[in-house]
Amino acid sequence: MRKIVLLEHISLDGYMAGPNGEMNWIRFNEELADFGHQATDRCDAVIYGRKTYEMMAAYWPTAGDQPSASEHDKSHSAWVNEAEKFIVSHSLQSAPWGGLGDCTIVGDIQQFAAIKDRPGRDIVLIGSIDTARTLIDAGLVEEYYLTVNPAILGEGRRLFDDIHNKIDLKLADSQTFSTGVVACHYVRA
User: pTM, whole model, 2 decimals?
Assistant: First the structure.
């Protein structure tokens, strides 16, 4: 059975975004990109909420082709362009991916229970605060790759707000990077 794997950047006080959606506090570099590849390399599908999909679809289809593309841009662009893409939305009628085909729109989060039963590798959820919270609360996320950034935001949008069920986790791996970011890989206990 496929697993849903969460890959998120959070602040030390648990925020995924500042009060106006800002993410300029994330200390991202190639070292951290390599950690993210630990999650994406074992996945052949990705989940985005509508807002994250709109950002990603505007950038990733051609990001790896740009003359100034970093190694991360090249590898992630190649991976995500090949990956099956699920977009959680009640308002989208279609979800094109830069001329490379359409994404699958999922209106009911419970559909992921059946999607996980399909053949394939694991599925990674990137960004998408509301979708992440809903999948976590529904018990559909089995693993968490969290990069804890050395920043205290004080306000914004927290990853674990509105979670109503207790979830026990076990630390599978952790790494500390030169930027001060601590990356933690948790699995359900």
Answer: 0.94
